Amino acid sequence: MAITTRLATGPDRAIEITRAITGRGTDPKGAIFRALLQIALLISVLLLIVLLVDQVTKGWDVLSTRFGAFFQGTLRSRPDDPTIGIAQGLVGSFWIAIFTAGFAFPTGIAAAIYLEEYATQSRFTKFIDINIRNLAGVPSVVYGILGLSVIVNTFGLRQGAGGTLMAGGLTLAILVLPIVIITAAEAIRAVPDSLREAGYGVGATRWEVVRHHVLPYAAPGIITGTILSLARALGEAAPLILIGAVSGRLASDPSYLDVGQLTERFTAMPIVITTWAGRPETEFRTLTAAAIVVLLLVVLLCNLTAILLRNRFEKKRGS
Amino acid sequence: MTETPPDDALSDAPAADPTVLDDHEVVFDVNDLDVYYGSFRAVEKVDLDVREHEITAFIGPSGCGKTTVLRCFNRMNDLIETARVEGEILYHGVNLYDDAVSPVEVRRRIGMVFQKPNPFPKSIYDNIAYGPRITGMKDGLDDVVEKALRRAALWDEVKDRLDESALGMSGGQQQRLCIARAIATEPEVLLMDEPCSALDPIATARIEDLMQEIKSLYTIVIVTHNMQQAARVSDRTAFFTVDVNPDSDFRTGKLVEFDQTETMFSNPSDERTENYVTGRFG
User: Would B46 disulfide with which of A19, A103, A195, B33, CB 3.0-4.6 Å?
Assistant: First the structure.
């Protein structure tokens, strides 16, 4: 059959075949779908660019003329105060990040390992799994209330009228904990069973399989997820307002090295921004925009780190 | 050897000498083995013996439980939470499913090669060295790696690139690497779960040759979809089939017949075996 077809190929046949296989050059539905997808992508990218350009323009006065002073200055009530700046907010956010990373990462990753590799699948573990997913969707204000009533009032992590930096860090760590668990669990679940079998097959114990094979393979996903959750913690204002982050003047001397601040009252970047944004003086608009640019840069830096680490670990994994 | 005509199974069967085969010591003595997944019985009443320095093949249609039975031999089914085993598998007289038996120790003595090559995402060297390393071995790893790779007929191909990732090898090389990895822990038994199903005929032939070469050192149990492969490589063959319960649609695997491969392919005692090996179904 195939041979006779080939023998019959003459000029007429070639024309016929050309017509048959070149008939539909265009695919209008496909083109429309593709255009819609591109528009969706464009909208999301454009929004981000517009936001960035808008804030950079508005805050340019501050960013261009007194960049250094802005980083070293502290919270002031008068916008034209030459010592006004975001140092306290940055230091507060820095320590919150450390606290979140130090508390939520190990706890969350450990919980995820247990859920995926150790716990027997039962109705109870399913129930826990669903609950963790729900917790990840709980509004951050609710975590603020939790932080206020449990961490600040019951555990007494307070000083005077409000919660301490440790209370703020702990609250945000609890806020991102479910997200860390979910992303880490997804990354662990994505490890192919064939890899586990390979490990068990040569006589590895469960601990060895987890430590030598599952975790290295899941590392890129775990790291990306956790760093993104850190970015989330850095941007949260509502829970911190509830537990009493300082929005007016703060007497402390900001330092990135002083652990003692953990038991002092604090402020953080989102708090600085919300406070300044609520002030009537026009100079505060410029200050707010400048602070937003800094916070955005910090968050983008987090995401960049996540991507770089991911690439590094994926390379190491050899895939 | 690489391309097997489907009707030429018999001529390829090894010339087994029955009297010699029966002298081989029993490694696994399987008695009345049932395997359940939850309340569903996947395999029932399996009785067979696996003998030392022989290749025992499990054949049968999909879903007949041959892989399930194989995975009982090194307690791999323990990883499936709902799996449960009844009856006994005696390994040199010790029941593998005794409470005192450690699955980790079992797997060191009874190595496994899987259906799809599954090297670790590490270097070739580290793949082989992994098993010995976790048992605490630090010195002489180079020798162990070389020996294992030589036995798996892979040494000449990879000796200059031991540091390269195993994932860069071809499928056939990866599978021989997995065999080398299993050999490196010096097991007594090698379980092979359709080791050639993802490989081309040439790579398959290499693995089959390899099995013949290492048979004198190990006891091999192989699950295969390919009857000709069973006829070519094995000394004994177990034929499994599957019963479908018309009420519940549950499928339960059964051992139909177990005998020397020559007998199984030339003069089977069960009609179902004959139909299967002559290609009438499955």
Answer: B33
Tell me the residue ranges of DSSP E strands in chain A. Answer: 158-159, 162-163
Distance from CA of B4 to the nearest CA of A (A): 26
By three-state DSSP, how is residue A316 classified? helix
Contact B104 A205 (CB under 8 A): yes
pLDDT by residue (tens digit) across B213-264? 999 999 999 999 888 899 999 999 999 999 887 777 788 999 999 999 999 9
Residue A317, CA atoms < 13 Å, CB-side half-sphere: 19
**B112-130 confidence digits (pLDDT tens):** 999 999 999 999 999 999 9
ipTM for this prediction? 0.87
Name every chain B residue with its beta carbon within 8 A of the beta carbon of A318: 121-122, 165, 167
CB-based contact, A123 to chain B, within 8 Å: no
Residues B111, B189 contacting (CB under 8 angstroms): yes
pLDDT tens per residue, range A65-105? 888 888 888 888 888 888 899 999 999 999 999 988 899 99
Domains of chain B: 25-116+185-277 (3.40.50.300)
Residues of chain A contacting residue B119, judged by C-beta atoms under 8 Å apart:
198
Q: Work out the minimum CA distance from A127 to partner chain B, whole angstroms.
A: 18
Q: Is residue A2 part of a domain?
A: no
Q: What is the CATH number of the domain that holds A252?
A: 1.10.3720.10
CB contact under 8 A, A203 and B116: no
User: What is this structure's pTM?
Assistant: 0.83
Q: Strands, DSSP E only, in chain B?
A: 26-37, 40-51, 55-59, 83-91, 94-95, 110-113, 189-193, 219-223, 236-244, 251-260
Q: Which residues contact B83 (CB under 8 A, 6 or more apart)?
A: B35, B36, B37, B77
Residues from chain A that touch B134, judged by Cβ atoms under 8 A, are: 202-205, 208, 212
